[in-house]
Design goal:
It is a single chain. The chain has 368 residues and is an alpha+beta fold. It has two domains: 228 residues, P-loop containing nucleotide triphosphate hydrolases (Rossmann fold); 115 residues, Nucleic acid-binding proteins (OB fold (Dihydrolipoamide Acetyltransferase, E2P)). The chain is 23% helix and 33% strand. The strands form four sheets. It has a six-stranded mixed sheet, with helices on both faces. It has a five-stranded antiparallel sheet with strand order 13-12-11-14-20. Strand 7, helix 5 and strand 8 form a beta-alpha-beta unit. It is globular. The protein starts with a strand and ends in a 17-residue tail after the last strand. The structure holds adenosine-5'-diphosphate and magnesium ion (MG). The site of adenosine-5'-diphosphate has 11 residues, from strand 2 and helix 1.
Length: 368
């Protein structure tokens, strides 16, 4: 049972506090993605798990055992980095076999383990080539192969796809998800790319400035973001926000006034806000639709037609707040025109002054 628990973890470099009170319980065989903007502490947290960096306070438990003082090699963990660091003069076979040679395994054991890794990663016919003869994606697979042969309890990945072009990243996402299924191993994967997080993770940890904003399944984060940060970070294009004023609040409903012109009655629990409070009202671009009457007006600046969808960028309200709508591919809009947008009240989110979500009522969503 390769469980991973992180308890009350904090990390400082000198006087700089990088991680604050991190608490996470990762289940056996789970694929967990740490996602957040550059500099939020993802790599530091991963390096602490690997034993490459010490905790300032708190505990790391692997299979229930405290490993704070264990050296990296004693933790049963293997890490794949963004730069794949292959030995250019060694063949693919020997690059994958490298950790086994260090452990002085017999030739037949090495052959068996490298063979298995190569077949999982579809590198069987590349084993005699040198890294220089491989594509970027193949090189990254060799680096992953080197990690697989060690039979680690937990795989750690630090932005392993960042150096690849977009099409290859898409392919590799699918491959890594398949790999997780085949190896049936616990994996922790770091990325700044919310699409990678959404597509690969069983559960996602959203990190911001060294703190956990939310830990949940992709669909929980999408439908029930607990903070404005998570709401804005997850989902593409990003959620729209408008500042509004609370005109009435009950446990069942919050009424807000947008821009003095539009009143929305939102099915949110209003026990943490009072009349007159400012709230940030959020709506996802894909939850908006064009209406003939009602709704709110948007001045259309730029249209991106992607075929299946049409992304419309513009401005709304007296403050000309930037707004975005994701509409049907053949939506009849033109740049420079005005359109009216509306949505079902259940699609709106609202966040208090501290950026915490007002709880949503009776909103169900599909999850696997
Ligand atoms: N060895 C170090 N010494 C001092 N500061 C560091 C060190 N490593 C990382 N940091 C700082 O810690 C913060 C988090 O870095 P990092 O974990 O690499 O972020 P991420 O991987 O999310 O981009 C950054 O502000 C970075 O400058
Ligand atoms: Mg990093």
């Amino acid at each position: 049972m390769a469980t991973l628990d992180i308890k009350n973890l904090a990390k400082s470099f000198g006087s700089v506090d990088v991680l604050h009170d991190i608490n996470l319980s990762i289940a056996d065989k789970e694929f967990v993605v740490f996602v957040g903007p550059s500099g939020c502490g993802k790599s530091t947290l991963l390096r602490i798990i690997a034993g490459l960096e010490e905790v300032t306070s708190g505990d790391i438990l692997i299979e229930g055992q405290n490993v704070n003082t264990h050296a990296p090699v004693e933790r049963g963990i293997s890490m794949v980095f963004q730069s794949y660091a292959l030995y250019p003069h060694l063949s693919v076979f020997e690059n994958i076999a490298f950790p086994l040679r260090v452990q002085k395994l017999s030739n037949s054991d090495v052959k068996a383990r490298v063979g298995r890794a190569a077949s999982i990663l579809q590198l069987q016919d590349k084993l005699s080539l040198k890294p220089g003869q491989l594509s970027g994606g193949q090189r990254q697979r060799v680096a992953i192969g080197r990690s697989i042969v060690r039979n680690p309890k937990i795989f750690l990945f630090d932005e392993p796809l960042s150096n690849l072009d977009a099409a290859l990243r898409g392919d590799m996402r699918v491959e890594l998800s398949q790999l997780h299924r085949e190896l049936n191993a616990t994996m922790v994967y770091v990325t700044h790319d919310q699409v990678e997080a959404m597509t690969m993770a069983d559960r996602i940890v959203v990190l911001n400035a060294g703190m956990v904003e939310q830990f949940g399944t992709p669909m929980e984060l999408y439908h029930r973001p607990e903070t404005k940060f998570v709401a804005g970070f997850i989902g593409q294009p990003n959620m729209n926000f408008l500042t509004a004023k609370v005109t009435a609040a009950s446990a069942q409903e919050v009424r807000v006034d947008l821009d003095g012109a539009i009143t929305l009655a939102l099915p949110l629990a209003g026990d943490t806000v009072q009349v007159g409070d400012p709230v940030d009202v959020g709506i996802r671009p894909e939850d908006l639709r064009i209406v003939e009457d009602g709704g709110f007006e948007m001045h259309v600046d730029v249209i991106e037609r992607l075929g299946g969808v049409c992304i419309v960028y513009g401005r709304i309200g007296a403050n000309e707040t930037r707004y975005c709508a994701s509409l049907a591919g053949d939506a009849r809009v033109t740049e420079g025109s005005m359109i009216k947008l509306a949505s079902d009240p259940a699609n709106f989110h609202a966040f208090d002054r501290a950026g915490r979500a007002l709880h949503r009522l009776n909103v169900s969503f599909e999850t696997e």
